[in-house]
Write a structure and sequence with these properties.
There is one protein chain. By secondary structure, the protein is α/β, with parallel strands linked by helices. It folds into two domains: 1-30 and 69-84 and 358-474, Aspartate Aminotransferase, domain 1, CATH 3.90.1150; 101-344, Aspartate Aminotransferase, domain 2. It has 14 helices and eleven strands. The chain has helices at residues 3-22, 53-64, 86-98, 109-126, 140-155, 159-163, 181-189, 210-222, 245-255, 292-295, 310-317, 347-382, 409-425, 453-472; strands spanning 133-137, 171-176, 197-200, 226-233, 258-262, 287-290, 303-307, 386-388, 396-401, 432-436, 439-445. Strands 1-7-6-5-4-2-3 form a seven-stranded mixed β-sheet, with helices on both faces. It has a four-stranded antiparallel β-sheet with strand order 8-9-11-10, with helices on one face. Helix 5 (140-155) crosses helix 7 (181-189), helix 8 (210-222) runs parallel beside helix 9 and helix 13 (409-425) packs across helix 14. It is globular.
């Protein structure tokens, strides 16, 4: 493909993207296909000769697109979102065109300095103290691993990095039973071992119980363990429960334990002053993470990771072989702020989004999603055969269909699982589930960039229709 052909097809692709967003509701949100459907339409061997781009693009439209789950559909109410927006898409075009490897200041000064600036903008927007310094990681899973590794090295005076684990290291990490699975993955990768991840019980609102945390730490110390890190969740994955940051932070301070705050999804709500109460106790935190790629309209991947002690972070990850030495000082070489050496220019899309929406525009979007959530919550509560199973803190509702005459727990679980399958197979919406105290609940997440009241209303009507059809046939 030469320059003229690229220009021609570039226009074609932009037109296709524009039409895709305009007509996105015509697609089934989740394709109802069997495993192997896409692969079986493609040749088993790579082409020996060059193929025409028009043929490649045609196959993309005819084979690939029908097998996609459409995350940007306003009828996508599953998981947590992975949102985009036109400003973010525009920045991604430019990032791909520049194709820079942004590992150090000298490999792209603009990338390094824009990341430093944009992360400080973000810090101000969510109300973190100015003592925190930000860096963009790919995901919150990576950020949590980076936090635990930094805590490990600081506790061991950086000896584990130098000499590996000794036989007397028995480190412990603590989180609630509702915390994200990435914490368990992190303790495994960090060499701490999943058996040393202590899961603390939760209260009736699924938030960590500080008194149970304190008790677990005391018992571990008596038994010769070294408490390393507590992960506090501001918005758990299942039902967006909020762990009490201040109480947990005080326990960490008393015992000299590293505190990592995981606000992967709900952290975006901190741009709203009415949600700043969640930061009560942030002065005890060592690290904090949230994902603009979830609810701040910025393409995946973009995880905002803030640290109090950047020197310990850098000392944990810094590697300066001869071929990466540079003369510049007093600059941020972000290769030393995390696991990856190679880094994309992620700050550009975040900068585009913040400037295009403005803080006020972003706040209006989030408040609209929250307004739609409160309205749906009221509808569910007014329907006698439905029940909400967890507090609605943000824009996630966990509910179940509980018609009269169905009292057995497993029977209800099966009924709701069947309902969820029927809804998703319809292609008209996409929902996911979790289990709370062993109860199968359906999660309804209202957060896609262009969701409107009519999408939520249509989804709720479909849920009721399919639910009552199930019991009328039984």
């Amino acid at each position: 493909m030469n320059s003229d052909e690229f220009k021609k097809w570039g226009h074609e692709i932009v037109d296709w993207i524009s039409d895709y967003f305009k007509n996105i509701e015509e697609y089934d949100v989740k394709p109802n296909i069997q495993p192997g459907t896409i692969k079986n339409q493609l040749p088993l061997n790579p082409p020996e000769d060059s193929e025409k781009f028009e043929n490649i693009f045609e196959d993309f439209q005819k084979i690939i697109v029908p097998g996609m789950t459409h995350w940007q559909s306003p009828n996508f109410f599953a998981y947590f979102p992975a949102n985009t927006s036109y400003p973010s898409l525009a920045a991604e075009f430019l990032t791909s065109a520049l194709a820079a490897q942004c590992m150090m200041w000298q490999t792209s000064p603009s990338a390094a300095e824009l990341e430093e600036l944009t992360m400080d903008w973000l810090r101000q927007m969510i109300g973190l103290p100015e003592e925190f310094t930000g860096v963009i990681q790919d995901t919150a899973s990576t950020a949590t691993l980076v936090s635990i590794l930094t805590a490990r090295e600081k506790l061991s005076s950086f000896n584990i990095n130098a000499n590996g684990f000794s036989s007397n290291e028995q480190l412990r990490v603590y989180c609630s039973t509702e915390a994200h699975s990435s914490i368990e993955k992190a303790v495994k990768i960090a060499g701490i071992g999943k058996e040393n991840l202590v899961k603390i019980p939760v209260d009736e609102n699924f938030a960590m119980l500080p008194e149970e945390l304190k008790k677990a730490i005391e018992i571990d110390i008596i038994n010769g363990y070294k408490p390393l890190c507590v992960v506090d969740a501001l918005g758990t994955t299942g039902c967006t429960a909020i762990d009490p940051l201040k109480e947990i932070g005080e326990i960490c301070k008393e015992n000299n334990i590293w505190l990592h705050v995981d606000a992967a999804f709900a952290g975006s709500s901190l741009i709203l002053p009415e949600y700043r109460w969640m930061l009560d106790g942030i002065e005890y935190a060592d690290t904090f993470v949230f994902n603009p790629h979830k609810w701040l309209f910025t393409n995946f991947d973009c995880s905002a990771y803030f640290v109090l002690d950047k020197e310990s972070l850098i000392k944990t990850f810094e590697m300066v072989p001869e071929y990466l030495k540079s003369a510049e000082s007093q600059v941020n070489n972000y290769k030393d702020w995390g696991i990856q050496l190679g880094r994309r220019f992620r700050a550009l899309k975040l900068w585009f989004v913040i400037r295009s929406f403005g803080v006020t525009g972003l706040q209006e979007k989030l408040r609209y999603h929250l307004e739609l959530t409160w309205e749906l919550k009221q509808k569910i509560e007014s329907e006698a055969d439905f029940e909400i199973l967890a507090p609605v803190h943000f824009n996630v509702i966990c509910f179940m269909f509980k018609p009269s005459g169905f009292n057995d727990g497993e029977e209800l679980n099966k009924l709701n699982e069947t309902l969820l399958t029927k809804l998703n197979d319809s292609g008209k919406l996409f929902l996911t589930h979790t289990k709370l105290n062993g109860i199968f609940v359906i999660r309804f997440v209202i957060a896609t960039t262009n969701v409107e009241a009519r999408n939520v209303g249509q989804a709720w009507e479909l849920i009721k229709k399919e639910a009552y059809n199930l019991i009328s046939k039984s």
